[in-house]
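__Protein archive entry__

___
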Amino acid sequence: MSATKGPWLVMLALALGTVACAPTHLTINVKSPPGTNQGRPMHMLVRAVDSQRYMTEFYADVAERVVHPDDSVVQTLVVYPGEKTQTKVKIPEESPLAISFLFTTPDGAWQVLLDTPIPGRVDIELEESRIRTDAPKKKRAPKGEGSKVEPPKVEPPKVEPPKVEGPKIEAPSAGK
């Protein structure tokens, strides 16, 4: 191997190794409790969209993609309340993925954007009319371990009651 080809081949091997490590598919796990979407099935859309389009699209624009898919639609799927759903989609090159849930009456977050680099797996938990967005609850330390944090105690301010004097009544004079 000549001195000029050596570094080039090493760089090529490193570049190929980096590409090979990035996930090519995304596994989407959806947990849908029985009361989700008022107990009715709903559509989930996975689309390759940039963040600008994601921020400016209306619900109706996304919902139309179920009936009239465009080039951005990677997959559509029906989600049934009370069932866990899993699907695998090919990750598009250099494009974020939007995962949208078409609730009958959305109340809060109804879609999520996965920016690049896209992970190999995402878990989504649904509520009645929205995607659950709160942070996972921290596990409590077993009894006796760790420090117990209590909220600060607040005492009401001490206030002296106002002094109220009764009306002054003059005694009637005897001479009148």
Notes: Confidence is low (pLDDT under 50) at residues 6-19, 135-147.
